[in-house]
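call fold(seq) -> tokens
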Amino acid sequence: MRTILERCETTLIRDRSSFIGIVLHATSKPLVEQYLKEIRKEYPKAKHYCYAYIIDNDKKCSDDGEPAKTAGRPLLELLEKKELNEVLLVVVRYFGGVLLGASRLMSTYLESGVQTINSADISLIENKYIYHMELSYSEFEELKFLSKRDAFSFENVIYDTKISVDVLIDESYVSNLVNEFPHAVIEMYGKKKVYKKEY
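ret:
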């Protein structure tokens, strides 16, 4: 899956109406509600605040007073098509007095959403396994070398008589890790999401 970590905003003008697209990283429903409140305060005189979000299996969209399925639904389908997760996409509309009709309205909301997402930096979401290791100083030097070659990372390094470290790796690499360090203590701690910028 992919996500957007930093807020991005674009503006589209269509027949005197302004469509302000905003995309944000959202990891929970309370955070979505908080962002929506902040956006309403930021743009207090707007007519509509249409949105869609996907957070894992939780999906929702809102037309916020626009004709049914002309705003929220195309925004949600856009997020799904782009394979985005942990993302809130909002399009704020300042009504300019000209009715666009359902078809043009839908295409305009979609265009605003596409423009906003295309302007944002995309990051990959990787689910890593956390393995706690205790190993010698020489083994740790080897671990650092392997981390560059095999693109895994480590954190929480504690230097003592031995080195204690948490290693974040793909599940497929675990057997290699055990074979490379037969004398090390290796225990699984859990899973963690890692975000990596997509180039």
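The helical segments are 29-42, 72-81, 102-119, 137-150, 174-180.
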